[in-house]
């Protein structure tokens, strides 16, 4: 790969990271209940991904019943990840929501021995300790009535759901197309979350359409597709390190458009959390 080609791919990876990082500010800004937002996100993304699979001739056949069960559980984890994340954003702010979510790489490292035959690396306990210190600094006050603490805890729950989803699907990526896997997950979510439209209402969608469309198309369909495509040209560790800049972009976008100013504790705690992500990404090489 020549230098010009490399720079072009690096630029595309950076743009993909920025697109994905818009999920935080959009989740905070869109004035709808999180389950309703996630239904629209899933429903619109399912249509886009189905059209892409048809256009590319990607098979939608699932080989066996066990794989169907795995995809269903992974879809539940994806739904939990998105819903808990959006509640975290609404209860706290973009900085706390995004930084608490980015504990997921260390959670994956700690949970992986439960899903595979690999042994736990002692360094992961050290990284987990650094994350806990970062969370302690990040938490404004340890009072369960504090909306910021509630947002932080929901962000961690979102990270746990995301980590479990990745571990569940890890062995299936080699057998199935990643776009097809994503299609089935958002399709399942759009079916399971349909009752939320009745119980929570979606009348306010008329004023929120532009932002929901941006979330479904720019953030979910284009951003994630570009990021997955970048793995053809970069090592997973390189993509992960660049991807760990998502909270930085998200906090910057929230500052520019939502006037959210991070505290000193957010910078210090967030730096510790992101440092562990970068360390683990480099080690995973």
TrEMBL record:
Sequence ranges assigned to domain EamA in this UniProt record:
10-138, 150-279
- What SUPFAM superfamilies does the database record attribute to this sequence? Multidrug resistance efflux transporter EmrE
A cellular component term from Gene Ontology for this protein is: membrane
The entry's keywords: Membrane, Transmembrane, Transmembrane helix
Q: Which residues cross the membrane?
A: 7-26, 38-57, 69-88, 94-111, 123-139, 151-168, 180-199, 211-228, 240-258, 264-282
Task: Specify whether Transmembrane helix is a keyword of the entry.
Answer: yes
Indicate what this protein is called per its UniProt record: Threonine/homoserine efflux transporter RhtA
């Amino acid at each position: 790969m020549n230098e010009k080609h490399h720079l072009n791919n690096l630029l595309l990876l950076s743009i993909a990271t920025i697109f994905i990082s818009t999920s935080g500010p959009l989740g905070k800004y869109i004035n709808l209940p999180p389950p309703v937002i996630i239904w629209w996100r899933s429903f619109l993304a399912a249509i886009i991904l189905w059209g892409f699979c048809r256009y590319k001739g990607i098979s939608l056949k699932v080989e066996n019943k066990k794989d169907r069960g795995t995809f269903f559980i992974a879809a539940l984890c994806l739904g939990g990840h998105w819903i808990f994340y959006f509640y975290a954003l609404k209860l706290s702010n973009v900085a706390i929501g995004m930084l608490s979510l980015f504990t997921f790489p260390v959670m994956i490292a700690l949970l992986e021995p439960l899903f595979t035959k690999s042994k736990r690396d002692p360094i992961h306990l050290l990284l987990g300790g650094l994350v806990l210190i970062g969370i302690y600094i990040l938490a404004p006050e340890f009072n369960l009535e504090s909306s910021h603490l509630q947002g932080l805890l929901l962000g961690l729950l979102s990270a746990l759901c995301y980590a479990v989803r990745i571990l569940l699907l890890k062995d299936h990526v080699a057998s199935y197309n990643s776009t097809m896997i994503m299609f089935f997950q958002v399709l399942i979510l759009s079916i399971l979350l349909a009752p939320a439209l009745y119980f929570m209402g979606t009348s306010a969608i008329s004023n929120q359409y532009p932002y929901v469309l941006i979330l479904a198309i720019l953030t979910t369909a284009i951003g994630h597709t570009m990021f997955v495509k970048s793995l053809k040209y970069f090592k997973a560790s390189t993509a992960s390190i660049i991807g760990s800049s998502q909270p930085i972009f998200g906090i910057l976008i929230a500052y520019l458009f939502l006037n959210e100013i991070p505290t000193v504790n957010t910078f210090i705690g967030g730096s510790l959390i992101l440092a562990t992500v970068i360390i683990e990404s480099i080690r995973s090489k």
